């Protein structure tokens, strides 16, 4: 059954409501990145304040646990909010995810304790709450944008939403640098005596992340429910047309049906035999590629200061100076690699296709990792260290131009409307399991086997991601969401 309102959404020209939806959904991803990727410089600052007996460095196991707490919350949030998005509605729980982020962000600034362990334990708990909100934002933002977009430029619109993560990383880094410079100019202390005010600085940085979430919350509450959820899940076709009348700027008569279709029961439930026959391969492909990608992506992102440690750390810097350098590194990588990668994805996604772009991204990531890992460590001494830094940044370019973006897009296009956020949440949660595995496991691998071996392993994981993509992924470019559902009635 082809409904007029859905057909009109698929063929609508690009107009104001598309950009409005991109902005509202994208600001959530912007806030996600601010929360998620501010932690490396924060850990540097906390290390100088509480771990002076360990050369100003938090023990790797403790740092990994802090990272894993947020990622675990993200995985749980993706599963919970993904399911609620299909049961309650996209709009119904869209603001709740932001509430988790806002409350958790403010609470992080009030992490309490009389010992470093107590401070980090409370911070870890509040970061877990932030992670739950971040996780909820993933399936809801991707699905809402996919259900608002037309089929010709749907990939570019969802990629544009996801690209806001890059700007979130950049702004988070700039805010961190600004706070560090401001506090550094006001309070002048020696490296051996980190200022007490530095303890206020990291709390302030975390709490400032609430600002984009507050701005986004109001706008999200003004959005109507998506027509696809109202028409296909709630089976209220007339209400879907009324909601879209103002959005599409067309008379109601052009998008309402001539006949009222009686509600029909769903043909099969979630996780039934028929569900797995029709969608099991798609769910496997989305989950496996996201899992493999996040092992590499989050390991590289969250431990990038370790990668550049030998080039950036000067003896005798203050706590605020050291944190400034970590944030500066993140900002530089975001400018020359991360954000351009997102822009390339927006430009290419509806021209090249999801499968080709994802496979190519994995392939070139593997080539770059092998290029960094195969040469001996002595090779990167002296002037060649700048080449090493450039190659390292390229991994983020190819990730964001390829699998980091496509793994976010494809699950929002493949599955039926009544399962869409659930399946996106499952795939995303598998990705965050991979991220936890990378954040915890590869911190130990890094210490035990060294940088070269770790990069070679990363290259192998990327090749595995390319293989899974080519073997199991299905192209969704240029088709309506209803065509992509693959509702083959011959499957029993």
Structure description:
The protein has a single domain, classed as MFS general substrate transporter like domains (Growth Hormone, Chain: A, Up-down Bundle). The chain is globular and about 75 Å long. α2 crosses α7, α5 packs antiparallel against α6 and α7 crosses α18. Helices cover 76% and strands 0% of the residues. The longest helix has 53 residues. The C terminus is likely disordered. It is built from 21 helices and no strands. The protein has 492 residues and is mainly alpha-helical.
Let me know the number of strands. 0
Average pLDDT, all residues: 86
* Total domain units: 1
Anisotropy-based shape: globular
Q: How big a fraction of the residues is strand?
A: under 5%
Q: Any idea of the CATH class? A: Mainly Alpha
Residue ranges: pLDDT <50 for 5 or more in a row? 488-492
Q: Which CATH architecture would you pick?
A: Up-down Bundle
State Rg: 23 Å
Structural class: mainly alpha
> Under CATH, the topology is which?
Growth Hormone, Chain: A
The biggest sheet, with number of strands, parallel, antiparallel or mixed sense and barrel status, is: none
Q: Helical amount among residues, as a percent range?
A: over 70%
Order of SSEs: HHHHHHHHHHHHHHHHHHHHH
Q: Please count the helical segments.
A: 21
Transmembrane segments: 21-42, 62-81, 93-113, 119-136, 157-180, 200-218, 283-303, 323-348, 355-374, 386-410, 422-443, 449-473
Membrane topology: Multi-pass membrane protein
GO molecular function: symporter activity
Pfam family, one: Sugar_tr
């Amino acid at each position: 059954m082809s409904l007029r309102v859905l057909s009109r959404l698929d063929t609508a020209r690009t107009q104001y409501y598309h950009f409005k939806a991109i902005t509202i959904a994208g600001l959530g991803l912007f806030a996600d990145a601010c929360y998620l990727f501010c932690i490396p410089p924060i850990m540097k600052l906390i290390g100088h304040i509480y771990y002076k007996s360990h050369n100003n460095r938090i023990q790797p196991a403790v740092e990994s646990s802090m990272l894993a707490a947020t990622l675990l919350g993200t995985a749980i949030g993706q599963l919970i909010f993904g399911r609620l998005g299909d049961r309650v509605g996209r709009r119904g729980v869209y603001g709740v995810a932001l509430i988790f982020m806002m409350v958790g962000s403010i609470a992080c600034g009030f992490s309490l304790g009389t010992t470093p362990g107590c401070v980090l334990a409370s911070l870890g708990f509040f970061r877990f709450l932030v992670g739950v909100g971040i996780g909820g934002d993933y399936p809801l933002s991707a699905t809402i944008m996919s259900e608002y977009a037309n089929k010709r430029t749907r990939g570019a619109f969802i990629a544009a939403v996801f690209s806001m993560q890059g700007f979130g990383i950049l702004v988070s880094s700039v805010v961190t640098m600004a706070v560090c410079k401001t506090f550094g100019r006001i309070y002048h202390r020696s490296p051996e005596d980190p200022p007490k005010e530095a303890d206020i600085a990291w709390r302030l940085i975390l709490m400032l992340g609430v600002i984009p979430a507050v701005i986004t919350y109001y706008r999200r509450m003004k959005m109507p429910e998506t027509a696809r959820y109202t028409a296909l899940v709630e089976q209220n076709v007339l209400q879907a047309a009324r909601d879209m009348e103002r959005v599409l700027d067309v008379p109601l008569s052009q998008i309402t049906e001539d006949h009222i279709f009686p509600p029909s029961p769903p043909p099969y439930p979630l996780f039934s035999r028929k569900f797995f026959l029709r969608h099991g391969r798609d769910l496997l492909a989305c989950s496996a590629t996201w899992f493999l990608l996040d092992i590499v992506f989050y390991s590289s992102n969250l431990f990038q200061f370790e990668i550049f440690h030998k080039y950036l750390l000067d003896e005798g810097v203050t706590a605020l100076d050291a944190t400034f350098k970590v944030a500066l590194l993140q900002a530089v990588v975001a400018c020359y690699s991360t954000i351009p990668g997102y822009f390339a994805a927006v430009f290419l996604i509806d021209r090249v296709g999801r499968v080709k772009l994802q496979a190519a991204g994995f392939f070139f990531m593997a080539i770059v990792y092998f290029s960094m890992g195969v040469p001996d460590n002595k090779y990167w001494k002296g002037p060649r260290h700048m080449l090493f830094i450039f190659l390292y940044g390229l991994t983020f370019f190819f990730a964001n131009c390829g699998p980091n973006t496509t793994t976010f897009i494809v699950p929002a296009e493949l599955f039926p409307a009544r399962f869409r956020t659930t399946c996106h949440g499952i795939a995303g949660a598998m990705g965050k399991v991979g991220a936890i595995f990378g954040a915890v496991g590869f911190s130990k691998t890094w210490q035990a086997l060294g940088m070269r071996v770790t990069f070679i392993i990363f290259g192998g994981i990327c090749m595995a991601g390319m293989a899974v993509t080519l073997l199991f992924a299905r192209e969704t470019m240029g088709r309506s969401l209803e065509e992509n559902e693959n509702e083959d009635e011959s499957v029993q």
